[in-house]
Amino acid sequence: MELKPEQLASRLESEPLKPAYLIAGAEPLRVLEAADAVRAAARAQGVSEREVFEAEGNQREPDWAALEASFNAPSLFASRRLVELRLPTGKPGKDGAAVISDFCAAPAADVTLLVTAGEWSKKHAGKWSEAIGRIGHVAVAWPIKPHELPEWIERRLRGHGLSADRDAVQLLADRVEGNLLAAAQEIEKLALLAGADKAPLDLARMQALVADAARYDVFRLVDAPERAAGAGVADARRTPRRRRCGAG
């Protein structure tokens, strides 16, 4: 059964680690946080060794032979390992699909496989992803639609101990224009500015806090030349571009 990334995080809190996970989708923040949840669950359940396989240099694909060898090799430093496979295109190709399917047919007792993919559609799915689903979980971060964004923001606010009325949530949704990374950053700043006051945010207070957050960004940019020989100003000026790149 296909899960949402948020559903996967909930499952991880209540069940033993599965032999394999696939987390994919065009929402980088949700994919990253779901993968982090798997890593955290692995650490909590005693997994202390981690290997990462991805295409490097001029390679178009990961080293499938090395991945297969890793599946079959005993752990050197721990009783259990987390093996991560990163597929930006979501396509392992014929050789990669075979390696993944073979692992899923007889998963090593000391290995948990975590596959992450940056691109995904129903055309990407195949026997290899179905094999992962049979022994583990498949979570897909489909793009959040405009009418779904307020609910996502409400959940995010609750995660930071905040709540807001409908108009306040809509104000924030309009401000971030579908960019989940920007929304997450705004909510983090709201939590910082709200401090110990956890009263529900109405429209007026949300407007005031958003304005304070904007002034914070401006002051950070102005003060940046005084820090670290100007290194901070470069970071501050890059932040908006990173937000745009993080858009779903």
From TrEMBL:
InterPro entries: DNA_pol3_delta_N, DNA_polIII_delta, P-loop_NTPase. Residues 21-122 form the DNA polymerase III delta N-terminal domain. Its EC number is 2.7.7.7. One of its GO terms (molecular function) is DNA-directed DNA polymerase activity. This is DNA polymerase III subunit delta. Keywords: DNA replication, DNA-directed DNA polymerase, Nucleotidyltransferase, Transferase. SUPFAM superfamilies: P-loop containing nucleoside triphosphate hydrolases (SSF52540). One of its GO terms (biological process) is DNA-templated DNA replication. The keyword Protease does not apply. CDD domains: HLD_clamp_pol_III_delta. It is an enzyme of class 2 (transferase). GO terms for cellular component: DNA polymerase III complex. It comes from Marilutibacter maris.
